[in-house]
Amino acid sequence: MNSAANGKVKLTGFEYLKKYSVILTALILIVFATIASGGLYFRSSNMINVGERAAAIGIIALGQMLVILTGGMDLSVGGITSVGFCVTAMLLQYTSLHPFLVILLMLLATTACGAVNGIIVAKSKIPPFMLTLGTQMFFTSLALVLSKSQNLQFGKQVTWMVEAWHLDGLAGRLFPTALWIAASVIIILVLAYTRFGKNIYQTGGTELAARMSGIKTDHVKFMVYALSGFFCGLAALTVEFRLQFCNASSTSDYMISSVAAVIVGGTSLKGGEGNVYGTFVGAFIMASLDNIMNLCNLDVYSQDSVKGIVLLVFVVISCMLTNSSGKKVTQ
Questions:
Q1: What's the pLDDT score for residue 42?
Q2: Is residue 137 helix, strand or coil?
Q3: pTM (2 decimals)?
Q4: Does residue 264 contact residue 310 with C-beta atoms inside 8 Å?
Q5: Do 46 and 203 form a contact (C-beta atoms < 8 A)?
Q6: Cα–chain center distance at 70
Q7: What are the φ and ψ backbone dihedral angles of 69, each rounded to 5 degrees?
Q8: Can you tell me the distance from the alpha carbon of 263 to that of 273, in angstroms, rounded to the nearest whole number?
Q9: Which DSSP letter does residue 10 get?
Q10: For 114-130, b where at least 16 C-beta lie within 10 A, e where not — what string?
């Protein structure tokens, strides 16, 4: 950054591009999508559909962003979400517990899975990438064994949610998006106004300096992985409500999609740099890509290649802008 004569900070061209690239990308995507789909994309019914589909990945991406801000990575989010599905389905099928208690126990289970990651990351020298890749395999296998690869039913819970929370009709379709927005607002406030939020940035920025300044970096790491597990549970709840049944193996793309949303949103893989606004828009962009390709009847086998190219472009641009700016911006 450059300092102006009046004492105000003046951003360079590279820094402007880096700070607002995700918003510019979203605007370009919306214009392109509206033209390519003949106006179908921007219809209210389709935008609600995009929000419904983006909510699960967007919520998981919030936890993923917190982990990446500390310099880590959580590749186990798909497996943890699958565990959430299994816990819900088994409690509904084999117990007479109240549906609200089932939801709480499911969230507790996914948070516990995340906490296991957090404890091992904090207390060992195992790279988070390798550790969570291993736990991803374990949690996914556990979910498949528990479910016997059968479809999991959530009808009883969904019926209760519709009646107790008045989620019929339009309210039901907006529920996943509303939960996503509420979770995003809470994380914005945590990062901006709490000591814990500042500690997350400092841990990811320079861990040694953070530790020497009195920050319990191991505790910070434990908390962000536990929160990642909690957000997997919230995402599972939105999918359970939206679909009413699913298979434990249906979360296979959650890991790459959540990481993609965080990267597209401008969070640095090196840690210490990123924000919720970018991650929110990043998840919207990734969901919109899926929606646009479906509206344009793009071959399903080609869709992943398109998303892969988009992700690669953003990684390259992020690296270029980081090297050009020479400084990290956390605001």
A1: 83
A2: helix
A3: 0.90
A4: yes
A5: no
A6: 15
A7: -60, -30
A8: 11
A9: E
A10: bbbbbebbbeeeeebee
Residues in Cβ contact with 214 at an 8 Å cutoff, skipping those fewer than 6 apart = none
Query: Among the residues of 97-216, which ranges form H helices?
Result: 99-123, 128-147, 155-164, 170-193, 195-205, 207-212
Determine the Cα–Cα distance for residues 265 and 282; give it in Å rounded to an integer: 4
**What is the biggest distance separating any 2 CA atoms in the chain, rounded to whole angstroms?**
70
Q: Which residues of the chain have pLDDT under 50?
A: 1-5, 7, 327-331
DSSP 216-235: -HHHHHHHHHHHHHHHHHHH
Token code pair at residue 316: 């390259």
How many helices (H) and strands (E) are present in the chain, helices listed first? Answer: 13, 4
Which residues face 153 on adjacent strands?
Answer: 245
pLDDT one-digit tens code per residue, 188-210: 999 999 999 999 999 998 888 99
Distance CA 188, CA 7 (A): 28
Exposure letters 141-153 (e unless 16+ CB within 10 A, then b): ebbbebbeeeebb
Going by C-beta distance under 8 Å and a sequence separation of 6 or more, which residues neighbour residue 231? Answer: 59, 60, 62, 63, 183
Neighbours of 37 (CB within 10 A): 17
